[in-house]
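Task: complex structure prediction.
Instruction: return structure tokens for all chains below.
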Amino acid sequence: MTNNTSITQVVRDKRPLGLLSLLPFIVVALTLLPVLVVASSLFTPTWPVWQHLWSTILPELLLNTAVLLTGVGIGTLALGTSLAWLVTAYDFPGKRTFEWLLVLPMAMPAYIMGFVYMAIFDFAGPVQTYLRAQGLDALVFWEIRSGFGAITVMTLVLYPYVYLLAKAGFAEQSGSALEAAKVLGSSKTRLFMQVVLPLARPSIVAGVSLALMEALADFATVRYFNFPTVADGILRVWHGLMDLGAASEMAGLLAMLALLLLLSEQRLRNRRAYHQVRGKGQGLPTMFLGGWRGLVAAGICSFVVFAAFGLPLTQLLLWGSRELSQLTPGTLAVYVRLAANSLSLAGIAAAVAVAVALLVASLTRLKSGALSRLLTRVVTTGYALPGAVIAVGILLPLSALDRSINAVAVAWWGVAPGLIFTGSIVGLIYAYTVRFMAVAYNSVDSSLEKIPPNTVLAARVLGATPLRLITEVQLPLILPGLMAGAILVFVDVMKELPITLMLRPLGYDTLAIWVWQMAAESLWASTALPALVIVLAGLIPIKLLLSQSK
Amino acid sequence: MNKKSMYLVLGVVAVALAFLLGGMIDLFPAEEAAAKPEFVNVYTSRHYGVEPVFERFTRETGIQVRFTTGSDAVLRERLRAEGKNTPADVYMAVDAGNLWLAGEAGLLAPLESQVLRDNIPAHLRDAGNRWFGLTRRVRTILYHPDRVNPAELSTYEALTDPKWAGRLVMRPATHSYTQSLVSSLIAAHGPARAEEIVRGWVANRPTLIDSDTRILEALAAGQGDVAITNHYYLGRLLQANPQFPIRVFWANQNDRGAHQNISGAGVTTHAPNRANAIKLLEWLATAGQADFASSNHEYPANPNATAHPIIVGFGEFKADPLNIGEFGRLQAEAVQILDRAGYR
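Output:
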């Protein structure tokens, strides 16, 4: 016992990490900067605005936000986890295909899904029109323009986060724990509830919290459904009451809600060790579902894929084919340029976010302590903030930086280099990293958790520098988790809107921006082709990810 | 596996750096703009149909137009943050409130132009010459002729009558269209009466849809009988389908006239190509008027320009001569009234 302690002590105290140990703090500082810029406005609250808000819409905003988060949380948890378990533990007709089909909805942004669902299911849409024509209006039980509609659409869009991470969680488990439980006489349900589920808990909780933070920050989709949340409130105050200060304060409120979410996630993950006996699991044995059971399983998967992806895709294709018949070479050239911009931005952002997340996650593990844990939690706050708020928080300091660089350059060399940071994609990448760090970090972190501390200690004792530790020991073991994180960031950036709107260089447009502009003017047919390209581009990395992890 | 993973990481980092460097070639946009003297850079939230109009401008004058789109508020924040280093010459916006805000924030410079003064009526431009309306968009009453007799319609205020309960379809409070309409009510009746009117609308339980096109389609399908929308959405629908059943009713013809708003533009305070910017605005107010307005079925601000035949077919009407800048000044109050009245 004392030997163990002294080895740990040796590793912790006498092997300094050097400059690398500063890295997490630098990253945290850079991440916090926009948050601080926005939060600083909280110290000068505009009381008249808050008085007005309290007596009018704020209670409704808070209630709606709570309802949305509860609904989306339960929905994505149930749907994502059960589907992940279905494809991991069972074998049924078409399972190989469904495995990756079920991830597809992630490529379709919520704001696209929102207006497509609206177009299909609302009063003037084809479904209700058909039912009215058949005299079947009584069958219409839904009011799509409501919280119910918002929760449904967001659940369908966000469940893949939980599905992917739960699947990774199940896949990384080694069969030995299950075999042990079976030998000890555990029933199948007990097996699932008390062995498999708890072992996959970090991944599942990570997935649900990602989905919830996405729902919290969404303002575009909820607007279609007349379901205002706190995020929507920020823009109401900013654009309506024209008070950026009050809007920043509302953003501060949103950030506090996000912090609450993160703390509950920490609680739910709890402090038990989640490492497995053999480091990387061999996976769980599958059970074959034959006959009607297999068909039911396939049917459930088909329905989910249809509802979350097939249906909106079909509508987009219909609109798109109409567009295609009127397409000019000029418009086609525009689309190609937009696609190139979107793809390169997404690729760079994914690489940067994952690299930074990996460095921070592994370095804080070597220096574990309450402070490091808190700091890494803070790093992931950016995800819950609306992109527009982060964009403002980054634009202000970066443009101040640009102004001072210009002033200095003019003073020394008489030449103004122009807008270096805000005029190029540097600001964009910085903002994306802040915004999507949580996505990469959660994935990397839960994978690192699976590596037994003994492996790390052994490497350190054998003389590995932190860099060798990362590249030769941890990296190979966590590659699936890294790839998952990279894909998630890539797709998120492809779909991203508010940050791109605010920080992009002159004339540098992306597909998402085009789609949003056309949707805002209800020119839905014009959204179709770029939207399809977004979805298509989102599909390729998903397919890669899934073939990678086999 | 060790070497492979290291090469993988290095490879990814190298590719990322390559892209980053490639992206940074756009590092000195200001320099690039200065190297080609015939340039004008536009920040615009009005993006539909602008490309062909700008192309025509380039053909006639030789000046290249580069434009960046975004929402009005976002573009204003960008201008504010960029300060003296902004590459933008022109700020073009939809809704007078946005132009008013840009003017008040010092983002637009006053400009002396006889051409603009002569061709754009005074109530459609800034008194301080910072921005000029280029097209007019009228927000009026639209109805389904099968279920509504136009003789029953008169004013926006009259829609508070209980006979319209459950039959109204309107835009939510979050959009500037609704906010500007309420601003015009404040200007006409004062805030107390304006709030009464909005409460009257709310009491009629209007269906709120966040898209004027969808509102009109809902009317056509039977979800409601009367709506308040911008005229040009009907223009677009009629262009696609001449049989579209909804009709226009010009509101308040016996008093102040129908509520109108503008999309327009101004030259930025630190415009690097100020002369070209002024040329663009003057062209848009004269030779480009018909094309610019028709590209979106709007009415030209220049009374001498011809409008799109479809909207000419909507008939003559009287428009509220209130100075458009008032919508910006009254917007915050309008939002508070909407919030208090429970109009979401």
